[in-house]
Every structure is written in C-alpha cells, then in structure tokens.
Amino acid sequence: MKPTQKPKRPHFSSGPCSKRPGWSPDHLKNALVGRSHRSKEAKACIQEVIERSITLLGIPDDYVCGIVPASDTGAVEIALWSLLGERGVDMLAWESFGSGWVTDVIRQLKLEHVRVLKADYGDLPDLSSASWSNDVVFTWNGTTSGVKVPNADWIWDNREGLSICDATSAAFAMDLPWDKLDVATWSWQKVMGGEAAHGMLVLSPRAVRRLETYTPPWPLPKIFRLTKNGKLIQGIFQGDTINTVSMLCIEDALDGLRWAEEIGGLPALIGRSQSNLQAVEDWVSKTPWIDFLANDRATRSNTSICMKIVDAWYRSLPKEEQAVKAKQLVKILEEEEVAYDFGSYRDAPPGVRLWGGATVDADDTRLLLPWLDWAFEQIKD
Ligand SMILES: Cc1ncc(COP(=O)(O)O)c(C=O)c1O
Question: Which terminus of the chain is less hemmed in, N or C, by CB atoms within 10 Å?
C-alpha cells in the first residue's frame, strides 16, 4: 500500500544536511553582510562561533579551535600538510573519504614511511594494530559506508605520534574524547546543518608543539600556513581568519549553535541523532529486504545511516542492474517529494544512505520508512 503521510522535511542528504527544525532565511537577517570580516563587530561574531563550538563540544581550555578555508577538506589538508613528515604515519581507511587522505599522503606529499590500514565498505581495519610511535590519520565516522570507530580505547594515552581525526560527520552527534584527539576537523553543513563554506580545526597542545618545532620540507600555500617565524599564528584561533569568510555563513553557523544550546546542548544533539538510528534499526529488524552496510553493530553510524539491499531477487541481478535499481528507488521517492538525496555515495556499494544527524526529526525518519518499503515494491515490477 502506498503510504499517505510524507515526512514534513524530506531532507535526508548527507551533506549539505537538513537545516535545523524551524530554520528560515529570516534567521540570517542580522548577518553582518557588506562589512569587513576584520571589523570589530565581524570579528566578534567569528570569535563567537569559535567559543560556542568549544563550549558545546567540551573542547579543553588548552586546545585551540579555528575557522579555516575550504570546509572540512581544507581543515584536513591543512593538518596533513602542516604536521606530517616528522615521523612515519599510519593511514586508516575504510571508505571513500579516508581513502582520499591516503592518496594525498602517498601521491601528493609522497611520504615514504606510510602504513595503510584498509578495510572494505562495511568493516573497520584492525584498530589495535595502529602504531602510536607513528602519527595516525583516521575518520571518526566514515560517511560513505556508515561505519564509525566504536570508541577511542585503541588510541594510546601515551602515544608518541599525533592522532589526526577527520570528524566531520561525527562532531555534534557522537562523543569525541578530546584527550585522545590531537587534531580534529569538521565542517558546518553536516550535523549542525549550517551553510557549507569553512572548516573547523582543533589542535591539542601536542599538535601545536609539533607545529612550532617541525617545519615540513615542502612549500605551504598561504591558506595552509598556521605558523609564522616558528610560532602558532594565534589570531587564526581568535577570529582573525587566514582569509575572507562569509559573514552570512558565520551568522548561519551561530544560528545552529544557539539552537543546539536551546535544546539542551551536546547530549540533546546526540540524542536526536540516536533517535534517528533507533527508528531505522526498529524498521530494519522487521524488514527482510534491507540491512545495514556496517557489519558490526558497535560501528553502526547514527549520522550517515548506510544500508544495502539484501533481498534474494535483487542479489540475483547483475551488479550494474543492482546499481540501476537502487538509483531507481531513490528517484521514485524524490519524485514523490518524500525524500531527497539519499542514494549511496558514488564510490560506495549501491543502496541507500539516510542522514540521521541532529537536525533531522525522528518523526520524519519514521514517516519515510514505509515509503522505502513501497518504493522497493515498485522497483521489483
Ligand atoms: C568524512 C568526510 N570527510 C571529508 C568530507 C569532505 O567535506 P567537505 O565537503 O566539507 O570538504 C566529507 C564530506 O561528506 C566527509 O563525510
């Protein structure tokens, strides 16, 4: 039977993600557009984003947090290019984004002492085999496979290298143990549903020490430079951004952070995201045609909820046909205006990926699920 009720907000994309409930462009009316980002007022807004992020996420006082160019990719690249090369590096990858960082380190930075710890979509590499005399680069939540690290127990307290974590689809929806992270990055358009533009970069005292004691042998473009004369450029972490920021995006980021505080801060954000996963788990447990891509429940993402079709008819199709059918399912529901942009990522196995971050209402997720059942029947015809 075709369901009758549609999700109120059909936004299930994994980036840019749904805006917060109640968002409208009116909330941007106080944006300091047309003002210099170096003006006192603009700098105060930029600084406010930093401070509210620090407070909300519980980032320790001795860490620094800054806004950098080029979204999460910019933040990760800045970290890799500025910090790596002092020692060997372990690169952990189990989906597309982690694999991208591996390519960077091997093909672009051309580092010699690189160990790649890889796993296929659905699994994690053996985290316990990471070598902490090396730097270790990893993604907290693999957005394209829906596999996250289950905890940080595998990160040594007495590590010699740095732990460098791409946390873009984890921050604000999963607990990040800051004492285990020397570098963490994220972008605004994910869990908080902000406008995409800038990246956030958090550095521990150990990461700052590395920056101040080690100079990589390769040239660093201006937008990657975090130090001057061997000292951290403090301004970057105090509202003095490397280059021009969008004041509209700054205002939007503030709007998201204020909303998060109003609803109860980080526990409320995590709770909202967990409710989305719970809704999907309840449905998957009684739905034989679909299953999670994550093979281990402990690694199942509550933000990028990736699923594969396991129905016998579907699995009997040739691989290319499976991909076509999965796309067809997504298209049917887009045309019905029930859900947008929830196809699996282009490099991932065919299936569906529902964003379950904090800005998505679990009621909407619940309303979508019977539509998935209906759409699956349609693609079988
Ligand atoms: C884990 C991960 N890393 C990096 C990126 C790239 O982020 P951005 O587009 O903000 O640069 C994404 C985007 O989805 C991601 O999910």
Answer: C
